[in-house]
Design goal:
2 copies of one chain form a homodimer. Chain A is an all-beta fold. In chain A, 0% of the residues lie in helices and 33% in strands. Chain A has a domain of 93 residues: Beta Barrel (Elongation Factor Tu (Ef-tu), domain 3), CATH 2.40.30. In chain A, strand 6 and strand 7 form a beta hairpin.
Chain lengths: 133, 133
């Protein structure tokens, strides 16, 4: 089960400790820069679309099964699968963003808390209601 | 970027062509059977919790960038990143389910459209509102 990088995050965020924990907690706009070979996969996306970005959190720790949520030392440890901690066996980040602009292989999105240089694995539209699918 | 299997789907679904396309389109209940070493990661989860299951869709095609959504030959091709097709460069499935029961490393969930034997990569809680995090 080997992943490939389909795109890379370009963002002003470079420091994990200073980054917001979620996109709606003050994250900046960022660019998803796709590999040219992936461009056909972007057909059908438009500004205004809400999408899920899947990233590989390459600065996370994978040998962690219990954490204190939100790095808060007043909270008890919990299993990582009951938290959104980036530290977990498969550090896949899941980010809900809105597309602001698309310029060739460059997709600008609102409120992404992933760090600059983070590999992007996938982009998926939000599911619509059953009769709109 | 290499993934590890943290759990495996046990489900009555075995045939891709016969499986529902999404969990809310008639998918059965299924079990997520965790590797014993992963059990500490489950602490803090309870029946009734809504979670996201990330799977590795091991029967998908990875060399596909354009598809007809929902295998409907009347619809034009679209880029895979604007669809939820299982066929895509990194075939990671994203499934929203409700936990029905937890028995040691076995987590029973409602409405999962993943096939029997599918590797599970991660489990994440749904994000709550900002002041509940």
């Amino acid at each position: 089960m080997e992943l490939i990088r389909v795109a890379t995050v370009e963002s002003p965020l470079t420091d994990r400790a200073a980054a917001p924990k979620q996109g709606d907690e003050g994250a900046p706009d960022a660019d998803l820069v796709f590999d040219e070979t992936m461009s056909p996969g972007l057909e059908g996306l438009s500004p205004g679309d809400e999408v899920l970005v899947l990233t590989w959190l390459d600065r996370a720790f994978r040998d962690v099964l219990r954490v204190r949520p939100r790095d808060d030392f007043n909270r008890p440890h919990q299993g990582v699968f009951s938290t959104r901690s980036p530290d977990r066996p498969n550090p896949i980040g899941l980010h809900r963003v809105t597309i602001l602009a698309i310029d060739g292989p460059r997709v600008e999105v609102r409120n992404l808390e992933a760090l600059d240089g983070t590999p992007i694995l996938d982009l998926k539209p939000l599911l619509r209601t059953i009769d709109e699918r």
